[in-house]
Write a sequence for this structure.
């Protein structure tokens, strides 16, 4: 075996850390509520509202609502968020938002309806949380 030094050990340690974080995205429902409140109150900075936070808010909205109502709530919230932070509305993509709502709803439908918001949100993030995946890849992940 060829020894590659600390770089290899550091890369392995980083992967282990990332995998552990993937398993337990949130520790409690208060963390989820804080993400939603930051989004709705526009107190989250735009560079802090990333893929994970989008999924979290959408899962929260879908948990106790219809996909149509969750989509409208997400859409209006995104417009409010963009407007508040002076980000052009051109950044919003209606079809992309609808596609994500549909994918998240599909994941939620596959879970036990008795699971907590915490468990459901963590499952959604586990299955759809890789922002490098395309919508097509995510659709496969829900199958």
């Amino acid at each position: 075996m060829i020894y590659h030094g600390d770089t290899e050990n550091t890369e392995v340690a980083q992967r282990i850390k990332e995998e552990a974080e993937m398993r337990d995205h949130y520790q409690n429902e208060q963390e989820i509520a804080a993400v939603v409140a930051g989004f709705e109150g526009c107190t989250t900075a735009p560079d802090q509202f990333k893929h994970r936070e989008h999924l979290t808010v959408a899962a929260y909205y879908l948990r106790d609502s219809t996909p149509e109502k969750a989509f409208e709530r997400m859409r209006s919230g995104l417009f409010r968020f963009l407007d508040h932070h002076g980000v052009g509305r051109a950044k919003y993509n209606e079809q992309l938002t609808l596609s994500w709502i549909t994918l998240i709803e599909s994941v939620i439908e596959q879970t036990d309806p008795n699971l907590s918001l915490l468990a459901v949100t963590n499952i959604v993030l586990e299955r759809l949380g890789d922002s490098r995946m395309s919508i097509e890849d995510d659709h496969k992940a829900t199958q």
